[in-house]
Predict the structure.
Amino acid sequence: MDLFKKTGKMALGSRLRLFTTRITDDAAKIYDWYHIDFTPKWFPVFFILAEDVPKTITELANEIGHSQPSVSKIIKEMIGAGLVNENQTSTDKRRNVVALSDKGREMSERLVLQCADVDAAIDGVISEAHHNLWEALEEWEYLLDHKSLLKRVQEQRKLRERKDVEIVEYQEKYQGAFKSLNEEWISTYFEIEEADRKALDNPKSYILDKGGKIFVALYKNEPVGVCSLIKMDDANYEYELAKMAVSPAIQGKSIGWLLGLAVVNAAKELGASKLYLESNTELKPAINLYHKLGFKKIVNRSTPYARCNIQMELTLIN
């Protein structure tokens, strides 16, 4: 179809719906041609019940991968057609168990030859085609079970938008952004403390002049995120990852990840063996990011911050 040549793969759902409609329309005609009064959408439920084991709606839904309301609707239609009986014998009176009726079992026997003919016809199409659609569907289902199409599109968007993100080293012109971005996130969740003021008001003397670094994330040339590598006067740690902040208006573009990587790589270049940080467990996205970067929780260290309830370290040299 010319439409799909124009749209490309983004119209996958529309193309599959048209393809499904074509197959379903033919399936209805096939039932009619075999003089079997049956609706194609009933088949998955009917097939499970044809194993002659009574099932609940929940059990049927789980086995065929449909929602319970969808299965309930199908069962009602099949009861109306006389193919299914409900309220079958169950040890649990609260469970509505359904099973094929005598008419349903008789239809199941009549369907055997039709199903054999359909299988043979589909095998014929497979033999004529360059690709085995049945095997391809199984493979696609497996892949999408492990990572949905939504997740894959989200990843592609992040990759595309990441191209508009540039991580640069601090310059004096970014002092306002460094301060405002940090104040924004701190005041959203906590209170700005004296230790914050020292770094935010004097980043050059407090961080840079002591051998640290500050990185700035630019999105389309605008500063939207910052993160610091602070030199520590500590026997166990040479540097601390601190003062990471990303504008809420621009989150979701992996900017925190890129800033974190920049700080980790800078620490490695400076020969640090470990990297230290402090945070708060309420900041779940931040904690997840730190874990992703390889940080692990540690205990029994003092901190100048009242808001700190978790401390972490990253080993840089094994």
Remarks:
- The chain has a mean pLDDT of 91.
- Strands lie at 55-56, 84-85, 97-100, 165-169, 213-219, 222-231, 239-246, 274-279, 296-298, 310-315.
- Residues 102-128 form the longest helix (27 residues).
- The domain at 161-315 is CATH 3.40.630.30 (Aminopeptidase).
